[in-house]
Amino acid sequence: MAGFNNVEQMLEKIPGWEDKRSRVTNYEAGISMASPEAILVIAKATGCSPCWLMFETGPIRATGRDKQAIRHQNLVAVVEDAKSHRQLTQLLNALSISRNKLDEYLDNPFFEITDRLARRCEKFIGKRSGWLDEQHIESDPICQSFPDDLRELMSIYSEIGNEEQEKLLKIARIFAEK
Q1: Cβ(72)–Cβ(65) below 8 Å
Q2: What are the Cα distances from residue 1, in Å, to 82, 127, 150?
Q3: Where would a tag sit more exposed on the chain, N or C end, judged by fewer CB atoms within 10 A?
Q4: What gap in Å lies between CA 64 and CA 99, rounded to an integer?
C-alpha cells in the first residue's frame, strides 16, 4: 500500500538504512520488534501511521482512515455476524468467493477489497451502496473501548442523514455552552 514492491525499495527511502534489510524482514516476520524510534522512521518512509505499524489498530495512513482499512474492518464484522447467525455459506455464495479467498481477505488488511465485492457484501446485508467504505462504530475496535452511552450516540449520529447530523450537533453545542 505504500507503493514499494520490496524491502529494498523502502530502504532506499530511508537514509542510513541500506544495510538493514534483515532487520526489517525480521520485523515483518514477527521475529523481532522494532523500537519506537525505528517505527517512526518506517512510518515516515511509508506514510503509515506509527500506531498501526505497532498495534495494527487505528488508521493505516497517518493522515486518516484508509478506504481499504475501513473496508477490511467492516468485512471482518460482516463475516463475524454471518458466522454468529450461521449464514457464512450464504455470504460466500452472495460474494461469489471461496472460503479460502475469504480467509485471504480477512488475514490481510492490504488485500484489496474491490468495489464489486464491497457492493455484493452490502447487498447481502441489506445496506446501501457505499456502506462498506464508511467507518461504523460497531466494527471499530478503538470505539469499542468507549462508554456505552457514547457509542450509542456515535451510532445514532453515523446512521442519520446530514441534516439530522447538523441538528444533533447544534443540540450538543447548546449543552456544551452551559
Answers
A1: no
A2: 28, 27, 33
A3: C
A4: 31
Q: What angle do CA 82, 109, 49 make, to 5 degrees?
A: 130
Query: What is the amino acid identity at position 124?
Result: F
- Check residue 62 and report its DSSP letter: T
Tell me if 144 sits within 8 A of 123, measured CB to CB: no
Q: Could you give the count of Cα atoms lying within 13 Å of 61 in the half-sphere of its Cβ?
A: 11
Exposure on the CB side of residue 148, measured as CA atoms within 13 A: 0
Give CA–CA dist 125/117, Å, rounded. Answer: 13
**DSSP state at residue 98:** -
pTM, 2 dp? 0.53
**Amino acid in position 50:** P
Band (64; pLDDT cuts 50, 70, 90)? very low
Going by C-alpha positions, the residue among 34, 59, 76, 31 that lies closest to residue 142 is 59
Residue type, 104: E
Contact status, residue 8 vs residue 18, Cβ threshold 8 Å: no
Distance CA 129, CA 18 (A): 45
Residues constituting the chain: 178
How far is it, in rounded angstroms, from Cα 62 to Cα 43? 8
